[in-house]
């Protein structure tokens, strides 16, 4: 097979050490978070949630939130948690990196300069970070797309299939993994999000290390989607980094499972749901000022004369009510 003769690669986009440091250091820190606690910080802890409507339905006017509080609750929620922020940042960086490399190689357009590439991926990372932090399903979507795409790409690095097989494998993993992460099945959603987050984080750690030490097999890993064979493929350095990726992936998923097993789900959200269900199950009565109504017996419910025939007591009588008829 012919080697890659183009210069459109990630190492040429980041032509100097300062650009590589600016690209790699934030990404490697975010990747460590995703590897070992991505799903835990997205679905369990560090995220806020909107209170259920039923839990506030009986609030009085004195406890009604003002406009500022309503704005804070609606628009400044962190439904994705710290894990969502991390997954959004990683997705923005990977998405811009892929587009900046595939367009010049496939369309023949000029490559971005290092400064332009820096500005584009910083802007995309900020936007995706805000979206994934604000909305939970945006975080799940970004985790599914980036995690399972990079997992398939890492498998291609390890197995070395043909070019068409690589493209097909990445496409299938991207579609299936994203759907599995978005399915509202709490029992299985944690598993798929955990695998996607750990795969994305491990990929980021290995790629950043390759860029900093100058190993092109993993540093230019994106070229495997359009190049049949490249320089440095199958070397001992590539195999060592592939082993490191597998080790990070397995240890990251195990660590995330351990965190969920020991610390559990979000206790504030569980308590809010409990209060909401308890409030809606109270024996309310429309003709009473409070939320409780006295229990009635079986005979009163089915054979009673009704509330209209029950004697009523005047709690705060006036003079007219105190007048009694002359016997």
The poorly predicted ranges are 1-5, 54-64, 306-311
Supply the number of helical segments: 13
For the largest beta-sheet, the strand count, sense and barrel status come to: none
Shape, per Cα inertia axes: elongated
Taken in chain order, the helices and strands follow as HHHHHHHHHHHHH
* Overall mean confidence score, pLDDT: 79
| Helicity level | 55-70%
**What count of domains describes the coordinates?**
1
- The beta-strand count equals 0
Structural class: mainly alpha
Oligomer: single chain
Could you characterize the architecture of this molecule?
The protein has one domain. The protein is elongated and about 90 Å long. It has 13 helices and no strands. By secondary structure, it is an all-alpha fold. It is 66% helix and 0% strand. Keywords: Membrane, Transmembrane, Transmembrane helix. This is TM7S3/TM198-like domain-containing protein.
Topology:
Elements: H1 10-13, H2 17-44, H3 67-75, H4 81-107, H5 114-134, H6 136-159, H7 163-182, H8 186-213, H9 216-219, H10 236-263, H11 267-280, H12 298-303, H13 319-322
Brief account:
It is found in: Membrane. This protein is an all-alpha fold. Helix content is 66%, strand content 0%.
